[in-house]
Amino acid sequence: MTKTIANSVPTKEGRYGKFGGQFVPETLMTALLELELAYDEAMADKVFSDELAYYLKEYVGRETPLYFAENLTKVLGGAKIYLKREDLNHTGAHKINNAIGQALLAKRMGKKKIVAETGAGQHGVATATACALLNLECVVFMGAEDIKRQQLNVFRMELLGTKVESVETGSKTLKDAVNAALRYWVTNVEDTHYILGSALGPHPFPKIVRDFQRVIGNETRAQILDKEGRLPDAVVACIGGGSNAIGMFHPFVDDDKVALYGVEAAGNGIETGEHAAAIAGGQLGVLHGAYMYLLQDEDGFIQEAHSISAGLDYPGKGPEHCYLHDIGRAKFDSITDSEALEGLQLLCRTEGILPALESSHAIAYTTKLAKTMRVDDIIVVCLSGRGDKDVHTVNAVLGGGVS
Amino acid sequence: MTTLQQAIEQVKIAGNKAFVPYIMAGDGGLSTIKPTILKLQKLGVTAIEVGIPFTDPVADGPTIEQAGERALAEGVTLRKVLETLAVFREEITVPLVVMTYFNPVLAYGLVSFAEACLAAGVKGLIVPDVPLEESAILREKLNPHGVDIVQLVSLTSPPERIARIATASQGFVYAVTVNGITGTRASFADDLAGHFARLRESSHIPVLVGFGISTPEQVVSMGELGDGVIVGSAIVTALHEGDFGKVEALVAASKNMREKSTL
């Protein structure tokens, strides 16, 4: 096989350039090594890939449409904009792609129990759903602050038979939920699999999550070739940990004519220090098993991320994105809370689509980008989730009247 | 033989068991570090593990996490702890082993950190989120400054891996007695004896047993499995509550053990 950017990472040590690795307590090392073996075996087994394909089609509802957003395109007057409609997946976001994949893998490994973390609740709901479907016991850790913000998702998980554990330590948000889930996994490693929800964590998680999310980019590539007879000029995705973005980017990484744009959450603005843009405003460090860009202070203590979108509210960026940034293959930029809210409203009004606050960052960035491109250029945006879950938050900010 | 290993070997040669207490540095303020260390060494402990607080201590249970949060609230950092130790290093007679998560070390800078360890008289380093695979860089940077890199072995580590970890570890091998995080335990798994027999066979350096040891009885029973014990959460709780008698009782249990084994 010819060595390309896409297939050269991770190395067998789990490195993406200098990023990634396996910075975990020894108790987890054997589980990670076992997971890697089981995963490689599963991916080489047609029975497994057929089973996964079956559930993605019949249960998740794939493939998702690649929709030409004609109205949005006209309003902006620039490049043609296509939306990859991951919001139309069962449970309303791309998270289910990975949750189903890993739950099937856990079953194959003979694990009976699943632990997961969740921020906004989307990955928690997706995991709870996969566990209900596949008859796995499930516990989800969620920060006490996030539980307050996302009551409905907590109840949804409970309806699905999952136990939701409130995390009361640290900042009581996503990073603390990951800490708690890792601790639970360390303690119950023999019968439990950890379904990590983003392209983060120790090797092989960033690779597993990427591979299960790659269906987004694979479908997009075939669909755009079918519709336009050529590849897009730009691909845009929001990035918290980076799972929808890496799934969308990966099949295009070796096409150097396709520009890749990752959109971080700038919160109240990078200059305020209240943001979640680790690539724009962080330093290199280790958290949750990986070497990556990280929001931290000068003593190496991890800082809280800030974003109106709970799903982007994480202080690090997945190692493969850090690598794509370092080698200059992907460009990372950021969008503030208020810009994201504008993007959300614009898509509602022009296309009748309510995007998740996370995905609204990608929409907002696209509104800037499209205007700088020619009318015959093509942008594909990953619309990673639907915004029903965010109506309450958006209403609280905008008040009754949408401007 | 390194200073740290020598301290444990001396206890061993005398037919005794090592006792290593863990303290959360700066729980109660930076000014508590000196008196705590001097009191512990007066009790005759073998070495002292000096814990550094961290915002995201994934390997720790609630007791040490809360102690860490108290220390963080006091403004304690890795840098300040090492500076504090350097001031009274002439009075320190037992080897100090720093336990910190990796990110504060990276933020310090490996070279500056190694120099600060040397200045503080630190003899060993435990980084719970740096397993064998990622540990070479620590040995490369810290060994020239007289600091051993102690590796952990867990119940889940298979025999072949245990042998590799035991070979790479320096000073002693830190054997984790439970699948889990730090903290108190009522009981331990049944297959401990076999696990530790295999571990001691493959290790050319002492094996210390830790995680979940909280009572004088457990100090005795767990100490039998290796060359001594590390006691964390129970010491942290006792120091926080100002109950030094509890600390004395735990250390005394290791001494009773010595008497027993010399009979």
Explained architecture:
The complex is a heterodimer of chains A (403) and B (263). Chain A has 403 residues and is an alpha/beta fold. Helices cover 45% and strands 19% of the residues of chain A. In chain A, the strands form 3 sheets. Chain A has a 6-stranded mixed beta sheet, with helices on both faces. In chain A, strand 5, helix 6 (122-134) and strand 6 (137-143) form a beta-alpha-beta unit. The longest helix of chain A has 24 residues, at 205-228. Chain A is globular. Chain A starts with a helix and ends in a 5-residue tail after the last helix. The mean pLDDT of chain A is 96. Chain B has a single domain (3-258), classed as Aldolase class I (TIM Barrel), CATH 3.20.20.70. The longest helix of chain B has 19 residues, at 244-262. Chain B is of the alpha/beta class and 263 residues long. At the A-B interface, strand 2, helix 2, helix 9 and strand 11 of A face helix 3, helix 5 and strand 6 of B.
What distinguishing features does this structure have?
heterodimer; A: 403 residues; alpha/beta; Rossmann fold; 2 domains; 6-stranded mixed β-sheet; 4-stranded antiparallel β-sheet; 14 strands; 45% helix; B: 263 residues; TIM Barrel; 9-stranded parallel β-sheet; 12 helices; 14% strand; globular
In short:
The complex is a heterodimer of chains A (403) and B (263). Chain A is of the alpha/beta class and 403 residues long.
| H and E order of chain B | HEHEHHEHHEHEEHEHEHEHH
Report the structural category of chain A. alpha/beta
CATH class of chain B, anyone? Alpha Beta
Which residues of chain B sit in consecutive blocks of at least 5 with pLDDT less than 50?
none
Taking all Cα atoms into account, the compactness measure Rg of chain A is: 19 Å
Q: Which radius of gyration of chain B do the C-alpha atoms yield?
A: 17 Å
The total tally of domains of chain A equals 2
Strand content of chain B: 5-15%
